[in-house]
What we know:
The complex is a heterodimer.
Chain A: H1 2-13, E1 16-19, H2 32-50, H3 58-89, H4 92-114, H5 118-139, E2 143-147, E3 155-159
Antiparallel strand pairs in A: 2-3
Helix pairs in contact in A: 2-3, 2-5, 3-4, 4-5
Chain B: E1 3-9, E2 22-26, E3 39-44, E4 48-57, E5 62-66, H1 75-78, E6 81-82, E7 86-94
Antiparallel strand pairs in B: 1-2, 2-7, 3-4, 3-7, 4-5, 5-6
Amino acid sequence: MIHSLLSKLDSKVRFQKAKAHCDVPCGIYDPSTALISALTVVRMVDLIEAEEGCTADNAAANKVIRCIAQKEEHAEDVKKEVRIIWGDFLKGAAAEGAHDLTHRIMLKASACRQGVNRDDAVELVELVNEFAELFWEAKGVETTRAVCPYEPKLETVYPVL
Amino acid sequence: MAFQIVRVAGESMEPKYRSGDYLLVWTLKRLFKPKAGDAILFKHARHGLMVKQVVSRGADGRYAVRGLHPLSSETRTLGLIPEEDVIGKVALCFRGKSKRPAR
């Protein structure tokens, strides 16, 4: 009631605006962190599989559990980083074009958390590669694909700067 | 004038004040001294008129402020607010019918 009266008055006298803005955007967006996390998921799956059958050994069990924890964390990091770029950076047609891909990354990263399946992890890297290409295209930056110079040595998208 | 009415623009004071709310601000500064937890209206050199919550008042008379929303800008980015830039203390908030649930 009072609000609607003030609103009418506002249209006549124009009350001053008191800014209560949220964070000043830093403008720093880069899919490389998501890619590194996706590659880490593959690496953890490889390390877990290398220890197969050794869980009776405490040291091996410790290593496997640590790798599983890292796999969980990095798969979740992929989701977080991709969500930030999708939600905060991509706008208009670029955001529209990324909806389906973003959703598939969410599902695939969750699948990587749930199981120990190398195919899922490799597919996650490829999906994030596609996301990186879409991101850099929106920034007007060319990209190239190269095998990352460390294990798991998979094809990775890099910006050409 | 003993008071001023302003319209909130932005989400940093949610859930207490939402964007579009009207605030009645007491401007007779001699009658109050903002304390921690009070919402104040102040002038900011870069951002203009702002509303934030007082965190603390330093011995030099400058206020540390923050928003209530986790993403709000705060003293780290706004700097300390000198006493003379404080315009008043928020006394009342008038809220319209919300089109979305409170966060």
